[in-house]
């Protein structure tokens, strides 16, 4: 039987942080045994906001190395760089012809990010980015897309675009979709984790942890040193309630830090509730910092090994791109035919 397919990616903008890891990458690792998986370093998404051209290449390599360091196994998964497979941009153009402007205008991420840029100065790419993300997913006839909570709206859009294209152009049975006959495009489903879907900033407790937040203090990067992790946790925002608890709407920081502790320590929510209910922040913070360091140290060690072997990484990415191009080619041929080219 044909394995169901999983596709996801992270942008190589700045450092990969705990939100990317807990919301996305950590969950990819669990999927690679069951599904055919493609994990992309989405560099074409990294140019929608002003960026440093001298950093893009290094950030791309670092992100790839971190995927492997986090446990992505290239004997099971395909890992590749988006710009190495031109079909992403080509399919995006075709999909954009079936995307009403009004659908893109509804995207909250665009509204937030373009407001920061100044509405009229934001790039067209920032506006059409969800179309490229849709192409990333549909190109491979993906069944599932594991993402954090912030991407839910973009996946919903991808589903709507797929349905619209199927309706407009997919009037006959398509047989060559890698053994997945049926409609022109599969309708993808998001996979959003139970815990870790929305890791919050360490400094304000209200916004999500993000690469683009100006303060590095607001996030734990996967490659932060032990001292830096201790320092960031020591200084992170807390509250003055007694004891620690999950799910109190008045204590978003507390819920966030306990959730992070729960995942990195591998404990259950019940165990953490019991362990921490009478704790002070002064007792909990070193415990959390230690758990983070213990969880991230092996990832950092593997990262150092991988990054020291650029020829190996190049080979992995080149093989990944070949596999992706082969799969994407089937979709592109069907799409061109369906649209009358
Ligand atoms: P960022 O928003 O940090 O630039 P990306 O847009 O590259 O990150 O997102 C890569 C993946 O990481 C997506 O699946 C996204 O949902 C997830 N992600 C990003 N930030 C967080 C967060 N704070 N909590 C949980 N998941 C997140
Ligand atoms: Na994001």
UniProtKB/TrEMBL annotation:
GO MF, one term, reads: tryptophan-tRNA ligase activity
**Could you tell me the keywords of this UniProt record?**
Aminoacyl-tRNA synthetase, ATP-binding, Ligase, Nucleotide-binding, Protein biosynthesis
Q: Which residues of the full protein are shown?
A: 62 to 402 of 407
Which superkingdom does the taxonomy of this entry point to? Eukaryota
- Please identify the protein, giving its name as recorded: tryptophan--tRNA ligase
How is this protein annotated for GO cellular component?
Answer: chloroplast; mitochondrion
Can you cite a GO biological process for this protein?
tryptophanyl-tRNA aminoacylation
Keyword hit for Aminoacyl-tRNA synthetase: yes
**Protein family (similarity comment):** Belongs to the class-I aminoacyl-tRNA synthetase family.
Reaction(s) catalyzed by this protein? tRNA(Trp) + L-tryptophan + ATP = L-tryptophyl-tRNA(Trp) + AMP + diphosphate + H(+)
Q: Where in the cell is it found?
A: Mitochondrion
Please give the organism: Arabidopsis suecica (Swedish thale-cress)
Identify the EC number(s). 6.1.1.2
């Amino acid at each position: 039987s044909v394995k169901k397919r999983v596709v996801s990616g992270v942008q190589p903008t700045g450092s990969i942080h705990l939100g990317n890891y807990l919301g996305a990458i950590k969950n990819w690792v669990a999927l690679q045994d069951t599904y055919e998986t493609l994990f992309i370093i989405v560099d074409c998404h990294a140019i929608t906001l002003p960026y440093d051209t001298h950093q893009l290449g290094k950030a791309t390599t670092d992100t790839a190395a971190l995927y492997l360091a986090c446990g992505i196994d290239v004997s099971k998964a395909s890992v590749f760089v988006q710009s190495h497979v031109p079909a992403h941009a080509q399919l995006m153009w075709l999909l954009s012809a079936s995307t009403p402007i009004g659908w893109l205008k509804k995207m909250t991420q665009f509204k937030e990010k373009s407001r920061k840029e100044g509405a009229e100065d934001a790039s067209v790419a920032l506006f059409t980015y969800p179309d490229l993300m849709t192409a990333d997913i549909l190109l491979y006839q993906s069944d599932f897309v594991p993402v954090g909570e912030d991407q839910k709206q973009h996946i919903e859009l991808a589903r709507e675009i797929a349905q619209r294209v199927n309706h407009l152009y997919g009037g006959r049975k398509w047989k060559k979709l890698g053994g997945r006959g049926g409609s022109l495009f599969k309708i993808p489903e998001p996979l959003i984790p139970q815990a870790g879907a929305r890791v919050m900033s360490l400094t304000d407790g209200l916004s999500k942890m993000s690469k683009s937040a100006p303060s590095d203090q607001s996030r734990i990067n996967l490659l932060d040193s032990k001292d830096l992790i201790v320092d960031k946790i020591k200084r992170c925002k807390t509250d003055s309630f007694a004891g620690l608890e999950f799910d109190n709407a008045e204590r978003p920081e507390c819920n966030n830090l306990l959730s992070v502790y729960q995942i990195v320590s591998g404990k259950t929510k019940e165990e953490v509730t019991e362990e921490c209910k009478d704790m002070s922040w002064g007792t909990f913070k070193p415990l959390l910092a230690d758990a983070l360091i213990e969880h991230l140290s092996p990832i950092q060690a593997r990262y150092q090994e991988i990054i020291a072997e650029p020829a190996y990484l190049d080979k992995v990415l080149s093989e990944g791109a070949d596999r992706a191009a082969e799969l994407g080619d089937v979709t592109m041929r069907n799409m061109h035919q369906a649209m009358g080219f």
